[in-house]
Amino acid sequence: MPCTCAPRRASPALQDALGPEPTTSEIKPIDKLEDNAIAALLLILAGWSRVRGQFELGDVAAELGAHLGVEEGLGFINMRPRDEYGVVDTKLKTITRENLEPKLAQIGLAPLLHHLREVHEQYGKALGMVHSVPAEERAVVRPRLDALTDSLRHYVAAVLGSVQRKKPATKELADALLHPLTTWQAAPAKRTAKTDGEGNDQG
After folding, report:
1. pLDDT tens-digit readout, 153-164
2. What is the 3 state secondary structure string of the chain?
């Protein structure tokens, strides 16, 4: 069932962290690829799960489905692109964190998983969630800045993607988790820098 949640407008600070919203024409083709790839993976798991208790692979699929939220359905593919990205990103991270890839391969889903990861990376770049910097611009500090920026983007996307329409508590938790970002202001940082500079002048 499509999610009917009203879209939330990010604060200026949060929008800066995420980057500008891509246009529909830019995102629609890769969004469709992402929809198809994740839907194929979850639907195959759902299909095999129907014969759990009869075939070993059915039991494996049911176990994988429990980890990846198969029973929650595919409503997330109708979310805003960045929210959908967050949901899929969380599922892919679950596969890595819980070492589920060998069991997916057991069902024959290794090629599909590889495809999903490639599409997801393209999707992230199109959305500005994956940041690339030319090699010549990378100095000592640059990789650390890139890592911090990417982590922030993934964090925001994952939090937004965790919100479930029928579970108000998930929205409350998301609001709490994003509160430091949505209320962040640039001005205090500037005042701190000025104070530091004055202190250096006095020294």
Report:
1. 778 888 887 888
2. CCCCCCCCCCCHHHHHHHCCCCCHHHHHHHHHHHHHHHHHHHHHHHHHHCCECCEHHHHHHHHHHHHHCHHHCCHHHHCCHHHHHHHHHHHHHHHHHCCCHHHHHHCCCHHHHHHHHHHHHHHHHHHCCCCCCCHHHCCCCHHHHHHHHHHHHHHHHHHHHCCECCEHHHHHHHHHHHHHHHCCCHHHHHHHHHHHHHHHHHC
